């Protein structure tokens, strides 16, 4: 596990963009797993900058997003499809036909989950999966539970997640109660993982990635078993790792 602790959010976004850009430069046909939320927005801005500078070409990549709210159409301003389109995809040369999302509207949840999983496998598997982390330790929408859900599935969002995401909707009652998310196994199949966390409200969740204890009640703890994880976090999010004496993990920039 490689850990980069940055001074602030801006530096975090730049470092994360460097990791993603290097993946695409190394493999122009890379399969990239994208994440939504507040944390990766700076990363996407940086990637747009790199694209405009001619440093990254997105034309060969294939994308799979982690999750989507159930009940929102692609056009809904809070759908994750819309988020990615607004914040990255419409501003770079990614090919529309290579963009994949779990659907928000469907009739047979099991069938669409199976299909999404099959699409990832057929594409050859994800080369680099970008992740945020919930204050409750969720990754994608894999919420704390007694057991891990392995593959793409329909999930009831945790109350904490609904509250955290209410800021995007204006009103908590507008936040969908369900989502389709890649499972913990889908995420762990990625060849490499880039996890971003910013702010002291993420410090507790982040510290579980170094606990030495894998626990489905803190889903991100499973990342300890992955052979190629890069954490890019700001110093506030790193507070508890350092207190727990894990500073030997630190790699300076
Ligand atoms: P955030 O969400 O980036 O908006 O904090 C992260 C997550 O819930 O995975």
Structural notes for this entry:
Residues 247-253 have low confidence and may be disordered. The protein has one domain (2-249): Rossmann fold, CATH 3.40.50.1360. Helix 2 (41-52) links the parallel strand 2 and strand 3 (62-65). It is 32% helix and 17% strand. An eight-stranded parallel β-sheet has the order 5-3-2-6-9-10-1-11. The chain has a three-stranded antiparallel β-sheet with strand order 4-8-7, covered by helices on one side. The chain is of the alpha/beta class and 253 residues long. 2-phosphoglycolic acid (PGA) binds next to loops.
Brief synopsis:
By secondary structure, the protein is an alpha/beta fold.
Name its key features.
253 residues, alpha/beta, Rossmann fold, eight-stranded parallel beta sheet, three-stranded antiparallel beta sheet, 8 helices, 11 strands, globular, binds 2-phosphoglycolic acid
Query: How many strand elements?
Result: 11
CATH class: Alpha Beta
Bound molecules: 2-phosphoglycolic acid
DSSP strand (E) fraction? Answer: 15-25%
Mean pLDDT: 95
Radius of gyration: 17 Å
Task: List the SSEs and their pairings.
Elements: E1 2-6, H1 9-26, E2 31-34, H2 41-52, E3 62-65, E4 67-69, H3 80-87, E5 99-100, H4 109-122, E6 128-131, E7 153-156, H5 159-169, E8 178-181, H6 184-188, E9 192-197, H7 203-207, E10 229-234, H8 235-243, E11 250-251
Helix pairs in contact: 1-2
2-phosphoglycolic acid is lined by residues 37-39, 132-134.
